């Protein structure tokens, strides 16, 4: 059994870093052969682009550095289950596997926003298989950061 924990913990740490910088709390890392090769954080506010989700930022970086054959052997670890937009980007990038800590459902319970479309629902429609793992045993840890951010951000605190 693979140990996803160190990579998810790094993604969760990146989500906290994004929040501390003034962006939404999401972070992602790209891993190949048990080595982190790319990192990205959400930058929707500081980047003035609502599509600058952590996973989108990571996929864009990956596309600049690697081809789809290389990415097929990579795993994207992310603090929270990707939205429909990011799930589509993961599919089209060629990344072979995605692991998330906090589910879209749990995020919806905390924030009450988003499309609430599970990533599996998007990815299972494709002709290519993307393996999805999550939520994991670190869901509560990832959710704590959302609990800290969303009520304040949405004016509910």
UniProtKB/TrEMBL annotation:
Keywords: Hydrolase, Metal-binding, Zinc. Pfam families: dCMP_cyt_deam_1. The keyword Nucleotide-binding does not apply. Residues 2-115 form the CMP/dCMP-type deaminase domain. It is an enzyme of class 3 (hydrolase). InterPro entries: APOBEC/CMP_deaminase_Zn-bd, CMP_dCMP_dom, Cytidine_deaminase-like. GO terms for biological process: tRNA wobble adenosine to inosine editing. It comes from the Bacteria. GO terms for molecular function: tRNA-specific adenosine-34 deaminase activity; zinc ion binding. Its EC number is 3.5.4.33. This is Nucleoside deaminase. The lineage of its organism: Bacteria, Pseudomonadati, Pseudomonadota, Alphaproteobacteria, Hyphomicrobiales.
């Amino acid at each position: 059994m693979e140990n996803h924990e160190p990579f998810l913990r790094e993604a969760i740490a990146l989500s906290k870093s994004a929040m501390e910088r003034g962006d939404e709390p999401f972070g992602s890392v790209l891993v190949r052969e048990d080595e982190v090769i790319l990192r990205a954080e959400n930058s929707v506010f500081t980047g003035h682009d609502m599509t600058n989700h952590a996973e989108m930022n990571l996929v864009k970086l990956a596309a600049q550095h690697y081809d789809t054959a290389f990415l097929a052997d990579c795993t994207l670890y992310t603090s929270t289950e990707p939205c429909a937009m990011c799930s589509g980007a993961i599919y089209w990038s060629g990344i072979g596997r995605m692991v998330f800590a906090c589910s879209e459902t749990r995020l919806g319970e905390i924030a009450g926003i988003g499309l609430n479309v599970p990533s599996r629902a998007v990815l299972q429609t494709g002709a290519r298989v993307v393996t999805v793992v999550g939520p994991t045993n670190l869901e509560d840890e990832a959710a704590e950061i959302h609990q800290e951010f969303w009520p304040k951000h949405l004016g509910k605190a």
